[in-house]
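<instruction>
Derive structure tokens from the sequence
<entry> Chain with its tokenised backbone below:
===
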Amino acid sequence: MAVTTTYAVEAQGLIKSFGDTKALCGFDIVVEPGTVLGMLGPNDAGKTTTVRILATLLKPDSGRAFIDGIDVVADPRGARSRIGLTGQ
């Protein structure tokens, strides 16, 4: 199901755990089209986990994420067609 908003990126209540470690606990974000976004924070803040979920490399345990209105879990190929990702 596509979201009716026009956000480039939207995440609602993302939760992701690795064993007993909670990497994300209800993360929300919206990014307007044309925005340059940098994610800053201390080690183990969930930045890489968030990017991996948005890039369809990980599935969230709970919550929803969209790229250009496309659900990254329901339509990962569609979401990937809208993004580019490279490591440092």
The longest helix spans residues 47-54.
